[in-house]
Every structure is written in C-alpha cells, then in structure tokens.
Design a protein that fits this description.
- The structure holds 2 protein chains of 2 kinds.
- Chain A is α+β, with helices and mostly antiparallel strands.
- Helix content of chain A is 66%, strand content 6%.
- Chain A has 13 helices and 8 strands.
- Chain A has helices at residues 18-22, 25-57, 88-121, 126-141, 144-156, 188-217, 224-241, 266-292, 296-304, 309-339, 343-346, 351-362, 365-394, and strands spanning 165-167, 171-174, 177-180, 182-183, 248-249, 252-254, 257-259, 262-264.
- In chain A, helix 6 (188-217) packs antiparallel against helix 7 (224-241) and helix 12 (351-362) runs antiparallel to helix 13 (365-394).
- The longest helix of chain A is centred in the first third of the chain and has 34 residues, at 88-121.
- Chain A is globular.
- Chain B has a domain at 151-362: MetI-like fold (Orthogonal Bundle).
- In chain B, helix 9 packs across helix 10, helix 10 crosses helix 12 and helix 12 (272-302) packs antiparallel against helix 14.
- Chain B is globular.
- The chains are: A alpha+beta, B mainly alpha.
- The interface between A and B is large, with 57 and 58 residues.
- Chain B: It is a multi-pass membrane protein.
- Chain B: It is found in: Cell inner membrane; Cell membrane.
- Chain B: One of its GO terms (cellular component) is ATP-binding cassette (ABC) transporter complex.
Chain lengths: 399, 365
C-alpha cells in the first residue's frame, strides 16, 4: 500500500542540499531496497556455493536425469501401469495419481459430512446441536496424524481373512483390506458414465436457458426436478435399454485373500477417514457461520412477499450463505490435499511417500523435495484459481 | 471490517430465566419433526454413552501390571497407561533422569501460567522470566552442569519434546509473522514482493516438505564443518511454516485498522516504526486475535508431524510403545490418552483466548 506520507517529494519541495537528499523519502526508500536486494543476492550466492561444494564433496549427482533411471521398488497400490522396472518418473506419476484419488474422495466425504454436521449445528434442536458440536470439537482438535494412525491401527487389528468380520454376503472386513460386493463390470457402465456427464451438461444448459427465459418473459420455470431427472434419469435409461444387467460380483474367499467385488486397502481407508473427518469439522463450522451470516431480515422479507419456503432456502438463504462459505471452503480443500501428504505414516503410496523412497535411494534430496513442492504448489494454485472463478460466479453482482 | 465477536454488548438472551418446560418446548419439542428428532438423537446418545460407560468404566481394568488381567476383562484396559506412561510421556530420555523432565514441565507450566495473567503483562517482568525459565529448561534437558548427566537432544522425547517444539514454534514464529505481515503491506515494493513470494510459496506446500528441507537439505546449505542441531532446524522449519499462515491473519488485522489511524499518526509526525509499533500493531493484533489463537492451536497439533522424520514426540513415543506384543492390544486406550492431552491443551488455549478477548474489549462497544 503506497501511503501518502511515504510518497516521493513533489515539485514544490525538491531536495536542495545534501541534508535534504539524505532525508528524502524517495532516496531512502530506494537505498533500503537496494540494500535488501544486495543482501538477498549475496545470501543466495553464498548458499548456492555451499550446496555445490557439499554435493561435489559427497559425490552426489545433481540435476533431474535420475528421473529416467529404473526405480527398483514395488508400489502396493497403483492405478496406472507400473513395475519395479519402471522409471522414477513413472513411480512419481503413480504417487501423484494416488494423491489425487485420495484427495478427491476426501473432499467429497468431508463436504458431505461437513455440510450435514454444519446444518445440524443450526438445526434448532438443542440435542442435535450439542451432538454436532461435540463431534466438531473432537475431530478438529485431535491432530490429523493421530487420527490417521488411530484408524490404521484399528484396521490392522481387524481379524485376518480366514475369520473375517462379515457383513452378510456383501462385505468382508479383514486386516488385509475391506472387500465389498459391487455390480459386475460390463461395458454398459461406460455408457452410463457418459450419460451422466451428458445429463450434467444438459442440466447446466437447461438452467441457463430457464434463467434467460425468466429474464425475458418474467415466467418462472423450476429446473430442480427436470434437472435431477436429466442427471439421474439418463444413466438409468441407458441401463434399462442395455437390458438392465443386475449381475453382482461378490467377494469370495480364495487362498489367503478374496477375489471379486471391490477391495479397498486399509492404508487408503485409514488415510481417507483421517483427513476427511479432520476437514469435516472445519467445514461444519464454515457452513454454520455461513448460514448464520444471512440476516434474519432477509428471511422475513422473503416471507413478506409470500415466497415459498423452498424458494426462500434456494434463492435467499443459500446464495448469501454460499458467498460466505466458498472462500474458506476453498482453503479447507487445499489444506485437505496438503494433509494427504501424511500418507507415509499409514503406508499409503502417495507422492510424498514415493518421493521419500526415491530420496533415500538416490540421495538427491534437493531435487526430490523440489519435485514434491512444485507439484503441491501447482495443485494449491490450481485449486484456488478454480475456486476463485466459482467465487466470482456466486459473489454479489452489483447492478 | 471489525469482527462482530469483538463488539461485546450484553446480549438479550431470551432463554435466560425461562422455565424448564418452556425451554424444552422451544428447543427440543417445537413441532412433530423436532420431537421425533429429539427422541431419536437422545436414544442414540444414550445408547452410545451406555456402551462407552460399560466399556470404559464398568468392565474396565484400571490398575494392574499383568496383561493377562486385561485379556480377561471385557472392557478397556486403562492399566496400559499406568504401565507405559513413562515411555509414552518421556520417550527415550534416560529412565533414571525422568525427574528432570517432570521438573521441566513444572517450570514450563508455571512460566506459562504467570505469563497468561494480565497482572504480569509487562515486558520488564516477562522477558527476564522467560529468559530464566528457558535457561532452566535448557539446563534440565541437556544437563552436563551441576553434576547432571549430559543428555544429547537426540535422546529427548515425549511430552517435553512436544512442549519444546510448540513453544519454540510460537516464540520464533510470531515475530517472523509480524515482520512478514508488515513486509506484505510495506511501502517498499521490493520488501512487498519478497514477502508475498515467501508467504504464498510456503503456504502452498505441505508442512512435511518443509520438514524434509530442514532435515535433508538445510545441512547442504551450510559451509563445510558447520552444523546446526537437528531439533533446532526442525523447530525453525515448523516456526516459519506457522509464521506464513499467521502473517496472513495479522495482515487481515492490519487491513482492518481504519485509515484515519494512519493519518492521525502521520499528522503528529510519527515515523513508520513509531506508527507501526504504537498505533497500528496493537489494534491489528486485537482485531486478529481469534484467528491468531486458531493458528496457535494448529501449531500445537502440527508438532505431531515430526513423527515422519523420526523425532520422538509424544505421538511417536506412544506408537513405539504400542509395538510391545504384551500390551499392543490396548492401543485404543493409549491413543485416547494422547488425544485427550491434545484436546485438553487445545481446549484450555481457546478458552483462555476467549477470556483475553473479553479483557481487551472492556470499555468497547
């Protein structure tokens, strides 16, 4: 902030003598800044020389060429092809994908739980409010690492597959992982996902069209039900047309493990529960303050013009609450992504875990840590960019 | 924007002095839906409370040295805390020297309690007090003088280590945070640029990467033969991370100080530092206090990240203790105990901060 009293001297009082020069704001300001720049450059040069010196003495290679070397380690969970013969770069990609998967799942769960608990906090029911408050205080104040460690220990202490904890025939909880029944995979699923995406796009277009129509004609078209029908109905229609495949793949014991169904590893589950519960406490508080930030008069005014209750929620309370909620929610999402980096304590192979292994194998700490930092910085910046765009969308439009 | 929580008029509370039946009608049984909700929630709470009570109290074993007794009990085995509390709380520190750690915790808590008392809010008291207590704690922890056995900082652990990490973070981090916040609002474009880049870059990366830098990269930056203690490196790492978040909070406070305050200071010809120190910062810190507290509590939780780089804080020590095959079945009790310690200190901190808000807002509307 350029304060007026720091401003450079104007034409009326030009510096005349040496004394004036020494005490002129502009000269001093420039002098301090040059001094700072020189000090920082000198420090940087000093550190750089030390690093080069130390690395040559310890015979550590520099540069990123090691990323092309064979990694020689196995990764437990991978969603893209990888073998110990693959390169370090491949290993890092596996880790990045794992980080993104656990973060995405965590964001969804934390948002759903956080909104539910946040709404419970202002439900008007004393009992429910207290329960929600207790949940919030506990999950927010216990370190996320402790929570993740707690869940991994709980999951590792489940019985072995031989005498698994059985949930009917639909699921088995074992210390090797959680196994659930799932619809058997058919090519129909691909078309259903496609239909879902199509439905979402159609719904957005429909909503925009309805708003235009309202602005032009003044007639209101409720897009809530048609929108839901588009999003949920289209995949259902595809499923029906494809002959309604109902085959379900059950997990069956085989050897020391289970085959069929879907399996979730204990590491992934523990990390997911830990980071999403921790974040849900913060999100609940954000939602609560957002709802409470809507002035009472707004609701009363809406009632006074006989707006239907569901419209009051959708068009009066929610838009105003979202304005308060979105900015802190963004930073919660970003910090959830960053919290996923504790994966190493539960043994989930995320980016940091694999980067750590790579660092220990090659000794190239500077490069390995730089890769991790750049990736997270990129994720954080992208996330805040996207959310800023969304925020602009919900922000007050002054006309 | 002045935070509404700062304004502190005695609010009109319609619930005060309301008859119990009336209160229940309003808050529990307003309509059919609320009544059903109340009944379901109370039933859930009561059954959960009963299960917990049966597990944690009725069927629990409180004191024993024999894991077999716990094995036979259906409930919790709190005895594990009695048996293992010393390695859990004090880590790898030599067993017969544990009294020094107890003394250290006593000295620390006494110092903190005195500092939290508004009567002693005076730099002429607080600075000597902290210097004395930091010296005493250093002597107690390291030893090597007065006939105390020398214990290198690699052997420190448990609660004292958590306390040292947390206190170091706040003591180092707060001044850095203030400087960064001032830098970000500085009239010098260069200082502003450096602060913005520093704050945004460090806030964009996870704490773990900064700890990795402190442990693995920082030694490479030093000239040959020079070494900095690992614990100090890690504390400074956490402190700088903390400072970047805190700086943003303080900046919010700085921005909320009305422009007239700057103008008034300029009109009586105060210099930049006089204005900042005497006019702007006190107001900014008061405005930002609630968020500052949140980040201090967060700093306490963040000390647990050192488990990843193998420092024996209270959580690492507990995880290590729970490898004992005789007692490892009772991990839930042990982790609950640790969680309770974090909860207790976090709760105490936020309660105290709320009290401070009340004190400093006396006489304000």
């Amino acid at each position: 902030m350029q304060d007026h009293y720091h401003a450079a001297p104007t034409g009326r009082n030009k510096p005349r003598s040496l004394h004036d020069l020494l005490y002129s704001k502009a000269i001093r300001t420039t002098f301090y800044q040059v001094l700072m720049a020189v000090a920082i450059c000198a420090l940087g040069l000093f550190l750089y020389n030390n690093v080069v010196d130390n690395l040559t003495r310890q015979n550590i290679a520099t540069g990123f060429s090691f990323l092309g070397q064979v990694s020689n380690f196995e990764i437990g969970e991978k969603l893209i092809p990888y073998t110990p013969r693959s390169t370090y770069l491949n290993a890092l990609m596996v880790g990045l994908v794992n980080t993104l998967v656990v973060s995405a799942a965590g964001i969804i769960i934390a948002t759903v739980v956080g909104f539910m608990v946040g709404i419970a906090r202002v439900s008007g029911n004393w009992m429910l409010e207290r329960l929600a408050l207790t949940y919030v205080e506990i999950v927010r104040n216990v370190p996320v690492i402790l929570q993740a460690i707690f869940w991994i220990v709980v999951l590792r202490n489940l019985p072995p597959p031989k005498n698994a904890f059985v949930l009917g025939e639909f699921g088995f909880l074992t210390n090797r992982g959680l196994y659930f029944a799932a619809p058997a995979s058919t090519p129909v699923h691909f078309w259903m996902w496609l239909a879902l995406a199509f439905g979402i796009v159609a719904c957005i277009i429909g909503t925009v069209a309805a708003r235009r129509y309202r602005e032009v004609t003044g007639r209101y078209v409720d897009m809530l039900l048609p929108g839901l029908a588009l999003i949920l109905g289209l995949p259902f229609l595809v499923w029906l047309v494809a002959g309604a495949p109902t085959e379900i793949s059950y997990p069956v014991p085989k050897g020391f493990n289970y085959v069929g169904g879907v399996s979730i590893s204990p590491e992934f589950t523990a990390l997911l529960i830990g980071i999403s519960m921790y974040a849900s406490g913060f999100i609940a508080e954000i939602v609560r303050s957002g709802i409470q930030a809507t002035p009472k008069g707004q609701v009363e005014a809406a009632r006074a013009i006989a707006l239907k209750p569901r419209f009051i929620m959708r068009y009066v309370i929610l838009p105003q609450a979202m304005r308060v909620i979105v900015p802190p929610l963004t930073s919660q999402y970003v910090s959830l992504i960053k919290n996923s980096s504790i994966a190493v304590v539960v043994g989930y192979p995320d980016l940091v875990n694999i980067g750590n292994t790579m660092m220990n194998q090659t000794g190239q700490a500077v490069e390995a840590i730089a890769v991790m930092m750049i990736v997270y910085l990129g994720i954080s910046l992208t996330a805040s960019l996207v959310m800023n765009l969304f925020n602009r969308f919900v922000a007050i439009k002054e006309r | 924007m002045a935070s509404p929580s700062l304004a502190n008029p005695a609010p009109f509370d319609p619930d005060a002095r309301m008859p119990a039946v009336e209160w229940m009608k309003r808050n529990l049984f307003k309509n059919a839906f609320q009544s059903v909700l109340t009944i379901i929630v109370s039933f859930a709470i009561m059954s959960l409370a009963w299960l917990l009570f049966r597990w944690g109290v009725l069927d629990a074993v409180f004191v024993t040295n024999d894991p077999q007794v716990c094995r036979e009990a259906a409930g919790a085995c709190w005895a594990v805390i009695g048996v293992k509390h010393r390695p859990m709380l004090f880590g790898l520190y030599p067993y017969e020297e544990h009294w020094r750690l107890v003394l250290m915790i006593v000295v620390y808590l006494a110092t903190v309690v005195i500092s939290l008392w508004p009567r002693f809010w005076n730099l002429r008291i607080l600075v000597p007090l902290w210097i004395a207590s930091v010296t005493a704690i250093t002597v107690l922890m390291f030893g090597g003088v007065f006939g105390l056995r020398y214990v290198p900082s690699n052997d420190w652990g448990g609660l004292p280590l958590t306390i040292i990490l947390f206190t170091g973070t706040v003591l180092i981090g707060m001044p850095v945070a203030v400087l960064l916040a001032l830098g970000r609002r500085s009239p010098l474009p260069f200082a502003r640029g450096i602060s913005v880049i520093f704050i945004e870059c460090l806030r964009g990366v996870p704490l773990i990467t900064i700890l990795f830098v402190a442990v693995n990269v920082f030694p490479l930056f030093l000239p040959q033969g020079m070494e900095v203690n690992k614990l100090l490196r890690i504390t400074v790492g956490i402190a700088i991370f903390f400072a970047c978040y805190q700086a943003e909070v303080i900046r919010g406070g700085l921005q909320a100080v009305p422009r007239g305050q700057y103008e008034a200071a300029a009109s009586i010809n105060l210099s930049y530092w006089q204005t900042t120190r005497r006019i702007i910062l006190p107001q900014a810190m008061r405005i930002a206090l609630p968020s500052i507290t949140n980040h201090i509590v967060a700093a306490m939780k963040n000390t647990s990240f050192v488990i990843i780089i193998g420092l024996f804080d209270i959580l690492t020590a507990t995880s290590a203790v729970m490898q004992d095959p005789l007692w490892r079945r009772y991990y839930i009790e042990a982790y609950l105990f640790i969680a309770f310690i974090y909860l207790f200190f976090g709760y105490a901190l936020s309660r105290y901060a709320r009290q401070v808000e009340k004190w400093i807002n006396i006489g304000r509307i």
